Amino acid sequence: MLETNVTISFIKGQRGGLKLIYQDHSYICVKQLKGSKYWTCSKQRSRKCMARLITDLDVQRICARNTTHTHPPSFVKE
Predict the structure, then answer these.
(1) Residue 61 to residue 59: CA distance in whole angstroms
(2) 29/20 Cα distance (integer angstroms)
(3) Where are the domains of the chain?
(4) pLDDT tens for each residue of the chain, 78 residues long
(5) pTM (two decimals)
(6) Exposed site from 6, 14, 22, 42, fewest CB < 10 Å?
């Protein structure tokens, strides 16, 4: 699945890194391989959330996703 018309934005995290915002959930970049960036939900540890995204290196397109979260959207509160 390749999504090109999606709304992606970024915020600065508490430790200074960038967080990707997609559908009102925040994600952190966990690795970068072969032209792709791999993102996990920022609540992965605290809420055991397994939602993930894979984007191209420029973060212009979502190449794959699992956006089933174990919690409601709350990126503003982080």
Answers:
(1) 6
(2) 8
(3) 29-63
(4) 555 567 889 999 888 889 999 999 999 999 999 999 999 999 998 889 999 999 999 988 899 899 999 999 976 544
(5) 0.83
(6) 14
